[in-house]
Every structure is written in structure tokens, then in C-alpha cells.
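job 3f2a | input accepted
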Amino acid sequence: MNFRILQLTPDFNYSDGRSYYVYLLLKYLNRSGHKAALCTNGGNSFDRLNDEGIQVYTFPNLLKKSYFPESVKFISGIIEQEKIDIIHSHHRYLELLSLTAARGKNVHTVFTALSIVDRRYFVEYKSEKIIAVSNAVRDMLIKRFSVNKKRISLIPNFTDSEEIKENVNPESTKYKKLKKLPAGQTAILSIGRFHKEKNYETLLNAVSLLKKYDIKLIFVGEGSEKSGYDKIISRSELNAEFFPPQRNLKEFFEISDICILTSVRDPFPGFMLQSGLHRKAFIGADTDGISEMIRNGKNGLLFKKRNEHELAEKIKLFMENDLLAAECADNLYREVLDKYTEKSVIPEIEDLYTGLFL
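job 3f2a | predicted structure (358 res):
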């Protein structure tokens, strides 16, 4: 059974985990014979959709509440033009737009809850089916927002198995530079938005406690918190380098020894899954979806969130125990390949879509 699906998400950017999730849905649903299109307000990563021949509709004022009627009309026009069967939204305000546009039409609605949030508006999570990407998100929906558990499907966040097959350009300036890292230096990678919830200050402070070790910090992302990171780096004289968001991340994983995520809140992070996909030793804060996935000492290491001293000890443990680091990386790799790529998740999404019509 094939469907015509409209995916709605804001700010379709490389630095955004939600955009990556939606990109994978669009890519693999289309390859499976469905017709999936994107509606968004804008972004910097449409080239990856162009390569897959995916239709994109942009309305710059989509997130502006003063343009609510115009946004509903825009979405309604897409529904009629594309003969949409399912609207799948990934942002609470866009869900409201979707539900309004779908009213009176033969269109089913799905929402993916990719975030853990506090504020309640009493209009969210009203779609026919809600996808929770982790148990932490599922519990939030039930306990904080009183969503009926029968409407919730637990389908995890996932990553793209094709990433490990991508070619790295050996002539890339940044790649050649990173490949020249001194022998014996430990490269630590972290990828994501520079946002308060990512709490990169804890990583910077932890590395400042390990002065006797030769550590190179590599960050890929963007955001308003970077100026604060720069101050810590300067004050502590850390060896750190920042790169803007990019499409191909394989070269960064290739040169890295340890991947670290210091989030104080994170539902089920894509960077954690990508670290496993690239067979890298992973250290994460003991929060939400990270602690659901990572079993300390088995497929990675956990530290108490915001505790820079414990993180420093975990970094030291991996640096001084190559066998443990390799074993954890191998276990995470096998688990990600088995459960958390498009090969296992897309069929679950398709089953959920099919169930809407039964």
C-alpha cells in the first residue's frame, strides 16, 4: 500500500537533528514507493532532497502566528494539489496548522514527538497517531500531557546506514588538516546545535582537568552559545576547533577517537546513533534517551549530567583502556545496525501509516 505523505518541519538545516530525521523519512519513504513531500519555512540543506528528487514547498512565514490563516491555506493547497493521504508533522505549532488544514478532508494525521518539553499549550499532540522516539518521550506524553497511551507508538529515532558507505574527499582542506593530527593525540568529537541543553561547557571544563593529556576537541554545529565556549577555551588554553554544519560527516568520525554528548536533556539523539554507526567509543550524560541506549561499560560510558569531574574520569578511562573503548564501540555498532537504521525503522513507520486506513 503506497501513500502520498506531506512532512512538515521548521528550519530544514544541517545542524538540526529533527531535520535529519525528516530527511531520512523523505528519502526512504520515496525509495519504498511512496510519494513524500516536504513543507517548511526554509533552511540550508535542500540539496540532499534535490538529489533524491523530493518535492519541497516553502512558505517563509510558516512559523509566524500572525500568518496562521495564510499558512493553513498554503498547506491546504498542497493537500489538494498532491492529493495527500497523510500529513506527518514534527513541530507542535506545525501540527496545529496541519490539523486545521486537514479538517473536513480525507487526510490522516501523524505527529512525531522528537523533543522533551515542559510548557503545555493544550492544543498539541492531537494527531491520530503520535510517534514517541524513546521511552522518555513516551512517558512525557502520558504523564505531562495526558496523551492516551493507545495513540502513542514507540518507534525510535534512527540513522542512515548509507553514511558509512559515503566517500571522503581526500583532497578536502579540512580533512587533510585533521588527518595531520599528531601521533598520540586523542581527538574528541561532538556534533549538534550550540544550545544550552547540549551543555558543551561540561565537556570543555572536563578536558581542562586533563591537562597532562594531548586532546583535540572537534565541534561541528552552530548556535548562540558559541561565544561562551570561546571564553572557556581561551581561559583554559584548550585545543579546540569548530566547523560549520555539513552534509557529509564521515570524515569527522574517521579521524575521531571518542564521541561525547553532554546534553542535560536529549530524547534519543541522532549523534549517539551515528557514533555507533561509525564504530566510535561513545560517552554520554545519564539523561533521557541517552541512558536508555547506553549501558555503562558495555556499549559506552555514562556520567552524571553536568558533572565535569566524572566526565573527565570517563574520558581518561577510554584513553587509557583501548580494549574497553574498542569493545564498547563494537557493541554499540552492532546494536545500531540491528535496530536503529532505516532498515528496521522505516517498515515500522509504514505499518503505522497502513494502520490509519484499517
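job 3f2a | The chain has 14 helices and 13 strands.
job 3f2a | closed
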